[in-house]
Structure to design on (602 residues):
């Protein structure tokens, strides 16, 4: 964990760790895991809100809790850039991390696999593997998606690959 | 089309007769005629799909697609080549390695191929073999079936356009591997071998999970991101290391947020390395299926030094994959039966060998001592150490059990309640 900024570190320590090692095919154990996922997400979202650092919305898109959809955003130069966020819980979860997708950015950056899956290989996957099964969705967002947005959004904006929604609407309104 | 062209030729002839005999007319008509004849021959050479072949023949004629393969029997390499038609092989990932492996097996006359991929063909794939530019936009599975069915209509092709890492995709993947419709009399599973030709860790773990659960032998293949090395590996659940038995190197290495690669995730690839790895993979597959030569448990390929390391890996008794541990248990339980079979085979071989003493006299009383006994004691316990030696580090054979989750009786342990709580936070 050396090299991570102190803020991320202190946030991470406050997200409850998970204990049940179970994937979507494990029946009752998965339900237990799902409860832990919710608790961690509730704690993390609450913490973000109270620290005025709210930056995502996520909720299960099916009753089994295997597909999740929501939004995430990043503020750069005082402008808020918002993206759709989605991912599936893989069958080998939690041995393998969920592949977080930002479908709107597909094809706009090299740091992405097909379908808008953000690249987590170097900065996040090893951490996930070392901390299996204690890390969950909340940790993936905190340690996987947040640093990716911090690294990529400024480049995407500066290079003109993405435009702020106000700029887009004014130009199309004319 | 042919009929039209014939009529055109006929009309030209009539025209020649009808027109006054002027040289310029004649030259023009001759020219037209030769054009039509050319188009005629082009029309005739439009590819025709060959019809299916019922039995593989060893007859050496130009029209026999299997003569060179059946010659393997005459050369004494393969006992019964035609058995290849009974085999089903599943190929997961129809990319640079998988597509070439599929073509090789198709040309070899494999019985049935199951192809899995969710991706589409792109121009960026054209530095590799198999796919053609006009197939861009098609799913890789459809494009592969199109080409493979043309090459060899005898092969039964099944294509599955799905992502095996999702719950739904995995269920379809599992049931397709279990489907025994192709050979009803088979006592084993629905396929004989699974070839993993995927490009990421997640998908490999999924193939590993499926094969461990089914007890299905599979082969893994891979090409490095820098395109200059690759490997193939044979995985027999319970007998050899599974893909989860040894964690990947990156887990053991330290990481840093700043190592977020600036140049992006585009991996390099070469048609050569991918072709070599596909060749090694299918060679091992043929040896495994048709029972000839030595089937490599692991074969590496370092293109820069042309180095081909081989090794064997035993399963990890502390593997994190529960299905792997079950297969290991079964394998150990089946040991007496295996030993008996091996012994019977040895005896049968020694019986068929010379029964008279090798040497009539033994002046010096030389006797051959069987050293398999010593081997056995070694194999029995890896703890065995010669007298006077001791281990420096303690053994860690007790698997560190993760702390058993205590039934956390908290106030809010209802799933719906938790979901509502998160939604409330999301709405705020």
């Amino acid at each position: 964990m050396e090299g991570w900024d102190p803020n991320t570190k202190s946030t991470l320590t406050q997200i409850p760790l998970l204990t049940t090692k179970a994937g979507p095919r494990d029946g009752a154990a998965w339900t237990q895991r799902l409860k832990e996922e919710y608790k961690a997400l509730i704690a993390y979202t609450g913490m973000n809100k109270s620290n005025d650092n709210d930056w995502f919305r996520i909720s299960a898109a099916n009753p089994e809790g295997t597909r999740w959809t929501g939004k995430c955003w990043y503020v750069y130069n005082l402008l808020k850039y918002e993206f759709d966020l989605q991912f599936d819980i893989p069958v080998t979860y939690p041995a393998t991390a969920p592949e977080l997708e930002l479908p709107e950015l597909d094809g706009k950056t090299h740091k992405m696999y097909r379908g808008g899956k953000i690249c987590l290989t170097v900065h996040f996957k090893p951490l996930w593997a070392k901390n299996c099964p204690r890390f969950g969705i909340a940790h993936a967002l905190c340690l996987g998606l947040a640093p990716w947005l911090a690294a990529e959004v400024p480049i995407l904006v500066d290079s003109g690959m993405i435009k702020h929604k106000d700029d887009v609407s004014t130009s199309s309104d004319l | 089309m042919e009929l039209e062209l014939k009529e055109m030729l006929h009309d030209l002839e009539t025209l020649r007769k009808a027109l006054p005999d002027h040289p310029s007319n004649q030259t023009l008509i001759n020219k037209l005629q030769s054009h039509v004849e050319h188009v005629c021959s082009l029309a005739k050479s439009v590819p025709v799909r060959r019809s299916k072949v019922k039995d593989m023949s060893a007859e050496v004629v130009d029209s026999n697609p299997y003569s060179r393969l059946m010659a393997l029997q005459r050369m004494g390499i393969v006992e019964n080549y035609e058995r290849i038609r009974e085999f089903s092989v599943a190929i997961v990932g129809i990319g640079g390695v998988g597509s070439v492996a599929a073509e090789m097996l198709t040309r070899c006359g494999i019985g049935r191929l199951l192809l899995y991929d969710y991706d589409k063909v792109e121009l960026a794939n054209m530095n590799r073999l198999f796919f053609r530019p006009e197939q861009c936009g098609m799913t890789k599975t459809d494009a592969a079936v199109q080409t493979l069915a043309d090459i060899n209509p005898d092969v039964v092709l099944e294509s599955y356009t799905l992502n095996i890492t999702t719950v739904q995709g995995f269920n379809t993947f599992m049931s397709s591997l279990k489907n025994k419709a192709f050979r009803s009399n088979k006592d084993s599973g629905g396929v004989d071998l699974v070839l993993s030709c995927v490009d990421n860790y997640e998908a490999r773990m999924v193939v590993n999970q499926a094969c461990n659960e089914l007890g299905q032998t599979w082969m893994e293949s891979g090409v490095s991101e820098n395109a200059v090395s690759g490997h193939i590996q044979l995985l027999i659940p319970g007998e050899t290391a599974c893909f989860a038995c040894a964690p990947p190197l990156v887990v053991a290495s330290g990481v840093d947020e700043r190592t977020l690669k600036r140049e992006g995730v585009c991996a390099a690839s070469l048609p050569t390395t991918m072709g070599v790895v596909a060749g090694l993979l299918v060679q091992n597959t043929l040896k495994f299926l048709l029972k000839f030569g030595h089937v490599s448990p692991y074969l590496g390929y370092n293109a820069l030094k042309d180095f081909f390391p081989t090794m064997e890996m035993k399963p990890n008794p502390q593997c994190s994959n529960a299905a792997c541990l079950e297969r290991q248990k079964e394998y150990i339980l089946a040991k007496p039966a295996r030993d008996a079979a091996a012994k019977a085979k040895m005896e049968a071989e020694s019986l068929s060998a010379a029964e008279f003493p090798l040497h009539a006299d033994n002046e010096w009383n030389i006797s051959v001592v069987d050293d398999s006994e010593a081997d056995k004691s070694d194999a029995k316990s890896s703890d065995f150490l010669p007298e006077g030696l001791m281990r420096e580090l303690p053994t860690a054979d007790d698997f560190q059990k993760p702390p058993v989750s205590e039934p956390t009786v908290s106030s809010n342990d209802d799933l719906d309640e938790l979901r509502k709580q998160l939604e409330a936070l999301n709405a705020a």
